[in-house]
Amino acid sequence: MRIGTLGEFRFIERVKKRFPKQSNAVLSIGDDCAVLGFTRGRYLLVTSDMLIQDVHFDLKKVSPSRVGRKALAASLSDIAAMAGIPKYYVVSLAVPAGMPVAFLDDFYSGMIKLAKEYGVELIGGDTNRADVFICDITVIGETEKRSLARRDGAKTGDDIFVTGSLGGSIKGKQYDFTPRLREARILVRDFRIHSMIDISDGLASDLCHITDASGVGAVIYEARLPVSRDADSKYGALSDGEDYELLFTLPPGSDDTVLNRKLGLPVTKIGKVVQRRRGVKIVTSEGKKRRLEKSGFRHF
Ligand code: ADP
Ligand code: MG
C-alpha cells in the first residue's frame, strides 16, 4: 500500500504500534509533544515540525522571515497545547546550493524575534543540501507535572471550548498567528483542564484527535462556531487548518465570559463531550444532526 492511500494518521498509528512506549516516557507518540520524566515535580516536553518549500510555502509569495517565524511558532503552539513553557530549540535545514545567504539570514531573523518574545534559546541544529528549502524545528520545553494538559483526558459531560476565531488562515494568519502559550498557562492555573490540543489540521480533525484519544464522543453546534472574517464559509471554521488556536474541554459549569476575561481574548463554548457510542456529531444551523468527519461534515 502507498502512504498516500494509508494517510498520515493511519501511518502514525502504525508506527505507534510498532514502537510502543518502553522507557519511562510519560507520553511518546500520539500527543502534541512527547512527555518525559525530568525532575520530581516537572516534565520535559519535546516536539518537532517540518516545513517544505512548495508544499507548505511559496517563496514567490512569502518572505523567508515569515517562514522562519511560522516554523518556530508551529512548534511553540504544540508546547502550548500541553500547557508547557518553551525553553530551547534546534533548527535543521536542507538548502539548495544556489540559495543566497541573505535569504537564510532573513529566515533566522523571523525566528529570533519570536524566540525573544517567548524566551526560547537556539541550541543547535543541522545543515544539509537539497533541491528545495526544508526546515525542521524541534522545541524542548517543560511543565509542572500538575499542569500538564493532554489530548486523552476528555470526560463525558465536559464542555468544549475554543480560543479565537477559525477558518481562512490562508489569508495570513497561517504565518502571523500567536502561539497560545500565555493563554494555556492561565487555563491550567485557573481552570480544571481535562484535555487540550492546538488546532493545526482543522477543528473537525483535531476534535477527533481528542475524542479518539479520550475514548469519548462529542456534539458541537454549527451556530456557535467562532467563524473568522477571513473564512469563506462556516465550513472553513471546521476544516481549514493552521489557526493554531486551542481546543480544550472543562468539567461542566464553566462560563465563557469568565474564560474571556481571564484570557483576554474571545473564548467560545462550542459543544459537549458525550459517550463514545454517540459518535462525533455536529448540529447544523438548521437543527439537523450530522456525523462530523475529520475533513468537516457531510451535507447529505
Ligand atoms: P501535531 O499536528 O500536533 O504537530 P502530528 O499530527 O504531527 O501532531 O503528530 C502526532 C503524533 O505523531 C506526535 O506524537 C508525533 O510526534 C508523532 N509522529 C508524527 N510523525 C511521526 C513519525 N514519522 N514517526 C514517529 N512519530 C511520529
Ligand atoms: Mg499539535
Low-confidence stretches: none
The span between the termini is 30 Å
Give the CA-based shape: globular
Q: Roughly what fraction of the amino acids lie in strands?
A: 25-35%
Overall pLDDT, averaged? 95
CATH topology type of the largest domain: Phosphoribosyl-aminoimidazole Synthetase, Chain A, domain 2
| Spatial extent as radius of gyration | 19 Å
Query: CATH superfamily name of the largest domain?
Result: PurM-like C-terminal domain
For the record, the count of structural domains works out to 2
CATH architecture of the largest domain: Alpha-Beta Complex
Descriptive account of the structure:
This protein has 300 residues and is of the alpha+beta class. The protein folds into two domains: 116 residues, 60s Ribosomal Protein L30, Chain: A; 143 residues, PurM-like C-terminal domain (Phosphoribosyl-aminoimidazole Synthetase, Chain A, domain 2), CATH 3.90.650.10. Helices cover 30% and strands 28% of the residues. The chain is built from nine helices and 13 strands. The strands form two sheets. The chain has an eight-stranded mixed beta sheet with strand order 7-9-6-10-8-11-12-13, sandwiched between helices. The chain has a five-stranded mixed beta sheet with strand order 1-2-5-3-4. α3 packs parallel to α4 and α3 runs parallel beside α6. The longest helix has 18 residues. The protein is globular. The two termini are 30 Å apart. The mean pLDDT is 95. The site of magnesium ion has 5 residues, from α3.
